[in-house]
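Input:
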Amino acid sequence: MGVAALPASLVPWSRLNRRFMTIGLSDALAYRGTFILGIVFAMIPLATSLLLWLAIYRAGAVGLSIAGFDLHGMLSYYLVMHLLGLVYVVEDVQWDVTQQIRGGTLNSYLMRPISYCLVQWDLKMAAVLVAAVIALIPASLVVIAARSILVLPAAAWQWGAFVVAVLVGIQIAFLLSLCIGLSAFWFLETSGFLMAAFPMQMILSGSLFPLELLPKPVYAVVGNLPWTYMTYFPLQIWLGRLDAAAVARGLLFQAGWLAALLGFSTWLWSRGIRRYEAVGG
Amino acid sequence: MIRYLRLWRELFITCLLREMLFRANFIAILATSSWWFVMNVVMFQVIFGHVTEIAGWTKYEIFFLVGTSHATFGIFETLFMVNMTRIPDLIRTGELDFYLLKPVSTQFLISARYADFEAVPNTIVGFLFVAWCAAKLHAVFSWTALATFALFVVNGVTLYYTLLFVSVTISFWFMRFHAMNIWWQLTSLARQPAEVFPPALRFVLTYCLPMLVIVNFPVKAYLGRLPLAAGIWALVATGLLLALSQVFFTFALRRYRSASS
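Output:
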């Protein structure tokens, strides 16, 4: 498929899409105060989980290892997971999309000569960009304050693989949220579903605890779901838990999920839009 | 006092009737609002797959704590949460006028006007879970233990209410101050077993910003681990804070200038 054959509206780097990115940027910057305050207070739950694990390891034998995590590995896991969480700000898309489908405001997008899903992508990626820049402040604080315990990737290739895995992970997080949002075409009242989906995603992406702590048969399933490839897989690379072969295989799996979700969301959109009744339009 | 309790009951029933008008939504919410609690239980279940105790707490003691926290905050959300989020708006829009005109305590009315039934199942689920944990712990059942537990749950809800009410009262000065977002994060402190915190921090969280009194105290009281002095202190502190919140609110009311209309 030649890119040249696509209309400008479908090319992510076209001028039209850059325009929407700019809108997303100013949107995200307008709420920077809230965002920074959010960062400061989100430190409290982080601190409590760090203290919780500290207490667990203190009570155990010296050099205790839980599912292959020693104390420093575990604390680094939560620190880096927290920083990633500050950057993965794409989950709002499920609320935005649901709202626009339900309220009928989707209409105004349908009339524009641009793909709706791509606009959402532009807006969210701009938000990610702003978040990443702002997150540099807490990130450098963490690196300075926790330098004695923080586990860092040892080799250059691990740094590289980590960055790639994070970039793809953000896309997977975006597409998963988009698919959940698009389900509003079928279920007009999805707020209950969304409320349940969010905590589930938190567990499956490893935000609550390292997935390898799960019983082995459970991890064998969960470890292959797309959520694992959002944040857990990049963290495994960061902590040096995977050798080169495992990283290569993981990246391949990640690419596979990315393609599958891309296909699935496109399919959901094309089916859903046919059912759309433009309520209130 | 009796008059206020009766008024509160009437307000509660009005809200329930209104909620029942949207029955489908009501049922959907009942089915989904305990997800965070389930997630918390899953997390500790997974951790206890690898260790036998956390900071001196065994698995079912921790579960007891998780259940109590779910129920306690459930009660708070049912009775006060919506009201607390509305107070800054009442001040900003001048709607507070209508409340000031009523022949009852304004603090009572703006705190108890609306009940939110989304959190009722949380409370029920929380208490059922606590009962199951108590059975698993083979704690000898006694009415005294249950009564002290109930007393400290009520104390915890009241204490949390006063802390929040004082924070939202600050909106009289800073209209755009949203205390609720901050408190949501602070509650994560209350949900932890107290012994997880280093002694100095534990002291602060018991006596200065008494988050650990809210959930930890009822659990410890039930398990017979709450020193008498600490228990008495908790009750006195709540009473004092409640009185203080009233004084502060009366003082803050002087700042109120009503709407611009």
